[in-house]
Amino acid sequence: MISKKTLAVTAFALLLSQQSFASETEGFYFGSGYYGQYLNYMGELKAKIGDKGAADTNKVSINDRDAQNTEGQLLSKYKGDYNPPFAANVALGYTGELGNNSYRVELEGMYSSVKVDNIGFASSQITASYVKVVKDQNDAEEKHLYGAIVNHDQIENISVMANVYHHWKSDRFSFSPYVGIGIGATRMTMFEKPSIRPAGQLKAGLDYRINEDVNMHIGYRGFGAIGNDIKFTAEKLGQVVDDTNNAGKKKLDPSSGSKVTEEINIGNQLFHTHGIEAGLTFHFASKA
Q1: Which of 113, 54, 1 shows the shortest CA–CA distance to 265?
Q2: Could you list the residue range(s) of the whole structural domain that residue 202 is in?
Q3: What residues contact 118, with CB distance under 8 A and at least 6 apart?
């Protein structure tokens, strides 16, 4: 991960440089860089049981798989801690003139991996469970406990983005401020299940011309993906019955009834990251 000291030294060096931008490079370029994510956020998790709606979220709780020494919590209240170990990108694009300034258009590929710390749980393997009320042959109500094993140890994104940038050039300095916006799609792997989601990003920073063919940049990147549901199979774990040895208590009878499964969808509506990126662009088809 890029240290704050390194970023500060790089930015200071850009500000001190006085090289002119009079001969700005035009043409195609190849770029690559590293993205240091410092803030990650995932929206509230929601659940749908069978063909029912999102209100079922209040019925679903999560706990360690063995449910020992930890306290279960509602799915909607669960908040993990997201720690990014790695993110990198490559891009192919074109730089052109726009009045006294310049623009860039590019196609970017990016990979990122965010480590998940399941706060309050012993491991990344957790159980999503809920109680379902059914009626037996005598029309009496029974409570059945259902559960699905969920692995949540990291979130991976493989993204393809189309980006557009605007650069403000200056004849006095060797750097130019820029802003950029991108849209595209990402293959997000969450709970060990992949899904394709629409994505977008915003960028802003400084671009520095090292020589006629090479530029470097450093700046902010905000990346976001719209969520969707991920399907799991919940299995009936048993019937919730009165504990004859403890008055007023309940216990689980795993031998009750036949094996039953049903679909449960778990998902979030938004995942986004914020951080600092730095990289190089190499112009291989240019003109003065």
Answers
A1: 54
A2: 4-281
A3: 80, 124, 126, 152, 153
